[in-house]
Specification:
It contains 3 helices and 24 strands. The protein is mainly beta. Strand 20 and strand 21 form a beta hairpin.
């Protein structure tokens, strides 16, 4: 991946001609023929239930995440469940310390299975599927879950009083009310009564060549700054470049570079008439307007192998979004919102290489 912080002034992510291009202009490029567009993504939202946060993505895969308590040693719980009628809940307990040795609810030991590598990291305890429902039943009847170290000392705790509301919200979002599959809103209807969950949209991309290095002079950098609305540096710099196709390039004009993070404005550069034409790229779900009058990316990163552009860090306070270049526009393939302890996915697509 390439992040703007590693560049002097501009991150070029596109095909560069063999000869040095003329300075970009603000004249709009003639757009290529484009296929019919899919509906714009409708991202899920987060809802807080006391000490728990709940969110679902567009396929009705939902997650309930506990909020962190203000203490040095912390523990959190994540309950995930797919939207299919027969899907079972997944329970993960994590700590700021190494893997917890045991769990207890209101002082009573909780029988859970060992961690399941490689799906879990060194501080995550994934509960065996057969034990997940039993743990949730015990948690719903309890007040506080504790993670214990090998000596039996408490690493951290998680309040459970709001867990029922959080799990009920998942039951309702997945239309499980009144069925035997519900975690809280239980009934006698069979799993077949749960409607099929929506399918994820499909986004295709073409893996792109790796980045290149290219010199831009002060005039070219200033021209990019004019189009982006973000003043570029006056000194020439070496930038990284990777092709989008034979004629187009994605440019990340670095607007803000601080220790806390970077902000960059994306542009698409098209080779036309012996020079470059710069314009803002198209997104099916635009990034937030963080700088000037157009969308901007925070801590942007580009992965040429999957033609993926990312906005925000995985643990960032504003969540994270990732788009894939489908040859005509950037299409959203993943999005998460900042949850209590971990980000909660609120959009996903099935990504396939062309």
């Amino acid at each position: 991946m390439i992040g703007p912080a590693a560049l002097l002034a501009v991150a070029l992510v596109a095909a560069a001609p063999a000869a040095k291009p003329a300075a970009p202009s603000a004249r709009p490029a003639q757009p290529p023929a484009e296929p019919a567009e899919a509906p714009a993504p409708m991202l899920g939202t987060l809802t807080d239930f006391g000490t728990w946060s709940v969110g679902c993505d567009n396929t009705l895969r939902c997650a309930a995440v506990s909020q962190l308590e203000p203490r040095e040693r912390r523990t959190w719980v994540v309950v995930r469940r797919d939207g299919a009628g027969g899907a079972e809940p997944e329970v993960m307990v994590a700590t700021s310390e190494p893997l917890p040795a045991a769990l207890a609810i209101d002082g009573k030991p909780v029988p859970v299975a060992r961690r399941q590598p490689p799906l879990a990291s060194q501080n995550e305890l994934l509960v065996e599927p057969r034990a997940a429902r039993a743990l949730l039943e015990q948690a719903l009847a309890g007040k506080r879950l504790a993670a214990l170290d090998p000596a039996g000392e408490v690493i951290g705790t998680v309040p459970l009083l709001d867990l029922a509301d959080a799990l009920r919200a998942i039951d309702e979002a997945q239309h499980r009310e009144g069925t035997v599959t519900a975690l809280v809103a239980k009934g006698k209807k069979l799993a077949s009564a749960v409607p099929a969950s929506p399918a994820a949209p499909v986004v295709t991309y073409r893996p792109l060549p790796p980045p290149r290095r290219q010199e831009l002079d002060a005039g070219e950098m200033a021209a990019l700054g004019t189009v982006s609305g973000c003043p570029a540096g006056s000194e020439a710099g070496t930038v990284s470049a990777a092709p989008l196709d034979a004629d187009r390039a994605l440019v990340l004009v670095l607007c803000v570079a601080r220790q806390a993070g970077t902000i960059a404005v994306p542009l698409v550069i098209t080779r036309a008439g012996g020079g470059w034409v710069a314009e803002r790229p198209r997104f099916d779900y635009p990034p937030p307007q963080r700088y000037g009058d157009g969308p901007a990316l925070a801590d942007a990163a580009w992965d040429h192998r999957e033609a993926a552009l990312t906005d925000g860090g995985a643990g960032g306070v504003h969540g994270q979004r990732t788009w894939a270049w489908d040859g005509a526009m950037f299409r959203l393939v993943a999005a998460s919102a900042p949850g209590a302890a971990v980000p909660i996915p609120i959009w996903r697509a099935t990504v396939r290489a062309k």
